[in-house]
What we know:
Layout: H1 6-13, E1 19-21, H2 30-38, E2 43-45, E3 49-50, H3 51-56, H4 58-64, E4 76-81, H5 85-95, E5 101-106, H6 111-116, H7 126-139, E6 144-149, H8 154-167, E7 172-175, H9 191-200, E8 205-208, H10 214-224, E9 228-231, H11 233-237, H12 249-262, H13 267-277, H14 279-284, H15 286-294, H16 298-317, H17 344-350, H18 365-372, H19 379-387, H20 421-431, E10 434-435, E11 440-441, H21 442-452, H22 455-459, H23 465-477
Parallel strand pairs: 1-2, 1-9, 2-4, 3-4, 4-5, 5-6, 6-7, 7-8, 8-9
Antiparallel strand pairs: 10-11
Helix pairs in contact: 2-12, 5-7, 7-8, 8-9, 12-16
Family: Belongs to the Dus family. Dus1 subfamily.
InterPro entries: Aldolase_TIM, DUS-like_FMN-bd, tRNA_hU_synthase_CS
Keywords: Cytoplasm, Flavoprotein, FMN, NAD, NADP, Nucleus, Oxidoreductase, tRNA processing
Amino acid sequence: MPKLRGEAFWRETLRSAHYVVAPMVDQSELAWRLLSRRHGAQLCYTPMLHAQVFLRDANYRRENLYGEACPEDRPLIVQFCANDPEVFVQAAMLAQDYCDAIDLNLGCPQMIAKRGHYGAFLQEEWDLLQRMILLANEKLSVPITCKIRVFPEIDKTVKYAQMLEKAGCQLLTVHGRTKEQKGPLAGVASWEHIQAVRKAVSIPVFANGNIQCLSDVEECIRKTGVHGVMSAEGNLHNPALFEGRNPLVWEMAEEYLEIVQKYPCPLSYVRAHLFKLWHHTLQVYQQLREELAKVKTLEGIADVNRELKLRCQEEIANQKGGEKPKEGLAFFHWICQPYIRPGPKERCKENGISGTEKGVRGKRALEDEEDRNSELLSKNKQKKKLRNPNKSFDPSLKPKYAKCDQCGNPKGNKCVFNMCRGCCKKRAFKETADCPGHGLLFKTKYEKSLLWHSPREIQNPEISWRGEVDVEETTLNEGG
């Protein structure tokens, strides 16, 4: 059966999805996708996966896609970042049986994407992108889609979208910000750019940006004419956004933790989700913020959630009639609601510095440093600097590691085969050789086993050829 394309793909495979959960690194994992689907999401993306790592690492594939089958988690689009057509397509071919489409990330604006040369930092390389999408469209059994950021110029953005459509893209998600608009400098997404793209292409278009509640979704569809709307941060702060509800934060946390029990994920993902869900409440109960940061088990996180619930319920019981939310919030802090990211001036005030003082002290300060050659560091790196004043974060000063001859990972400095430990172990076992640098002594142990194998053989050094084979097989099977 030929794969569906364009409108037919959106209607039949994606079931005319209007409400979409964005691909988010370490945040749109299976448990969160299931929670979002329970509360109105009609289509979800996986976290952004690195095509080269997905291709070479079976554990990475299993942890991110090949885990326990979950029929409720469809329709599903798997997103990859990549900059090589062959690598991208080979990785996509390993994923295509587990999803409904493959998405190429052309929207990530972070410094890691700049260093890795992928995401929004490929948007000027149209020849490369054409080759990637043409090859994927030819080889894959599922459609290829793209998520992009806009150029400052609407005309160039439209031509960019038309190029991707012509190459074989079957659905386009347009984030209405440029790659420079991120963190405290994000500003408002341009729906005008999205509307222009929607009018210029014949494939389905999703909009991304400025989505904080269900009314924003409806307004975006009305103004731009897009097929669906994608949410990232709005969904993280309120997973019931697409239902048009604002539930209690601890109820969403309890439901999420229940799903995680069935579909486990790293504790760091869980903690990050609860920091988002509880954002406003943790400004009030700072002690619980510290406890959440330190807790080491899922049960411990559930205990913190119960404590947060008790404190909020006590606060509700003591609430006076006519009392209104504080800090300019639309709802009381224990209700799921958007987080309005402060701009540069507000962020400077939060940190007690003036807007002209050194710029923005946000979590992306290090990225701004590399872009503007300033001396600001992220909070995490500032802490490391306090512990070690001589520590440098200059990428040019990092030690250059020699690569393994086999897989490209850092090799052992004293490895006799110039390999990493994993590759060295395989070769040393296969060749019954020693590598003192990695502490692998297959040859030495084998020779010792020959002497120990039988008293008769120690006395009679003339061991038969058949006996040598038996000894070798016995030794290797025992892991010697």
